[in-house]
Amino acid sequence: MQKSGKPRFLIDGFPRNKDNLDGWNRVMSDKSKLLFVLFFECSRDICTERCLGRGAAGSGRSDDNLESLQKRFNTYINDTMPIINHYDELGLVKRINAESVPEEVFQGVKKAFDGAGLHRIAN
Asked: Deepest in the core among 18, 34, 98, 122, taking most CB within 10 A?
């Protein structure tokens, strides 16, 4: 990141749990400014349907099956949602309705970035 010369970064899927959050805060809290957290809201049923469809289409992910998805959802509820709730309490969560079609989800993401003064993300 330092070598890139860029001032801003989009970090995907992190922190996922309290250990990740604690490590980030310990190492990066004085080196970075978190602008916001994107939270893609989607029901468990729709997520399951999409992941199973992705697996059936040959995604290459061995965990796109019902048994693995149940474990992933449990981990998400127990480990990741507390992190989202933490950032939500700080007023840093921007919620995106991810149950829509991809173009509408993208428009929600663009709106979140525009609202943070980060205009013109790539299409």
From this structure: 98
